[in-house]
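Sample 3 of the quickstart, ligand adenosine-5'-diphosphate:
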Amino acid sequence: MIASLLIANRGEIACRVIRTARRLGIRTIAVYSDADAEALHVREADEAVPIGPAPARESYLVAEKIIAAARQTGAEAIHPGYGFLSENAAFAQAVMDAGIVWVGPDPSSITAMGLKDAAKTLMAEAGVPVTPGYMGEDQSPGLLADEAGKIGYPVLIKAVAGGGGKGMRLVEREEDFADALASCQREAASAFGNDHVLIEKYIASPRHIEVQVFGDRHGHVVHLFERDCSLQRRHQKVIEEAPAPGMDAATREALCAAAVRAAKAVDYVGAGTIEFIADGSGKLSADKIWFMEMNTRLQVEHPVTEEITGVDLVEWQLRVASGEPLPLSQEDLTIDGWAMEARLYAEDPARGFLPSVGRLELLQFGDAEGGRIDTGVYEGADVSPHYDPMIAKVIAWGEDRDEARERLEEMLQDSAVWPVKTNASFLVKALQHPDFAAGTVDTGLIGRDGADMAEPPVPSDEVLQAAADALVPLAAIAGFRLNAAPRRAAWFLLDGARVEIELTGQGSAEPALGVLVAEQGQAWLLSPWRHDAVHGATGGSGAIMAPMPGKVIAVEVEKGDRVVRGQKLLTLEAMKMEHTLTAPFDGVVAELGAGAGQQVQVDALLVKIAEDAEQDV
Ligand code: ADP
Ligand code: ADP
Ligand code: MG
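Result:
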């Protein structure tokens, strides 16, 4: 077994890998950017090496710096985590060339599966059913449009180098094809440096079902059953579970056998995932499930597999990288119960899921029997605008699906984060959705019903009344009584916005200056009314700032324009995604801080909306 390990990653996955390595007695080495000097993975590792400025392309994505850090610390092996350099064949090769053990598949396997078109061609040859579509070299728009017509609408345009749900466009009608193609190619070129696309039949009622595979250097390949990741928002996984609802034994066997065939076709070593798309309009059956792509790394949602199989997949990765055979054979692997994972993000569903960065002044995770939290932050840590704003993966296990789902809901309900906004209440509502609860989910569910889930949660009257009591002096309430007011209510500030709360208690002998109230996975600061503080802390002043560094790609308004709440103001491209910024309230565009094409820093003023003077009187 290797004796030391450098983790070429950050956040929860770096912490996750460190945890297992430590248990196995392996010395751990973290790398960190300037933004991460105080990060949890740095604190948890035995040693940590700085590798440069905050932007990932100047630190976590620089192969030479990581290899130099490994040399400097005498690290015997490198684990890439997921994202960053994990599916970069050149990096894997450079690690091996430096005489360091690469915890992952051979570079040739990564390359074979790296581009979606080549991977599909290879899989078809290996007898794995692939999603019907066009995956040719010719990229002329006319030909692609013809191919789309032949496949039949709706079709999906996919960047062959895409990942993380980016670089994909659903096209339902022929007349929309040209625009969608251009926008997909633009996003692909900027995010992946490769504008090649393939065209796929868009599967009706699609379900995303994937199989965990594992290979070693002794000729063994096993599968660890399937996961269902159908609950997605804009092609990104939101909630994942294992096993897949409605999967019968025969379909499972056929699907998992196809996954093992796929892995063997590329001589796969280590942990990998074969992703399939299934037609979920009826009962699952093997002839309606097709290969989509392979991820040649550990997957974000690997914990649900661990929870139902009892296998520590990171331990297996480290054993296989050390040359050991797989610890278990296929016959030894069984499914025990059900597991479900939710990705808790620092983002604001009510504002188009914009990342919500800043310090985690309050960070508390709910607990439940069989519960597990994989996190990369701690209370007092910062959510940086430079990286994926995931706070934690919240994972629950149960004897059956309902128990796992209810426990996960409980864990999310009991979490509390402030002042950073999270998607906790969105996740809770998703878990409670009748179709999800019944196990009949498809990837379009959030697109159809997500608006309700994204509504900002509000604290209940009971919790507000209890908190208000702590803020109001005893005497003040007595005063209300003496005047025999019909209603005893007072004004407060709830995260900077004015609220009226009915007072039901006695008030406090020593009134607090502010109280954090927590409910539905969210927390709010309730404080005494100050007339000048309304809209203050929340940016409700009408100043729209860049939530992260990025590039303005479109400005929809001009100075002086009258806008209504929710109206699109501009589009910012950041973290490989396009984010739409909207007006927080009705008003007038008082200032425009950036034009199309401009690069902006975090917190740069983009637009200022002034409240409509006429309405203000
Ligand atoms: P998985 O396929 O493991 O379930 P996803 O599909 O959600 O994970 O994401 C694919 C990959 O993209 C992951 O390796 C993840 O780390 C990475 N990723 C997701 N969001 C970002 C981001 N904003 N910046 C960089 N990498 C990201
Ligand atoms: P990525 O590399 O970004 O993960 P994938 O090819 O795995 O890209 O697709 C991501 C998601 O897009 C899938 O999980 C699924 O929701 C949706 N999707 C992909 N291909 C299809 C398809 N042919 N029909 C319907 N939905 C699809
Ligand atoms: Mg995928």
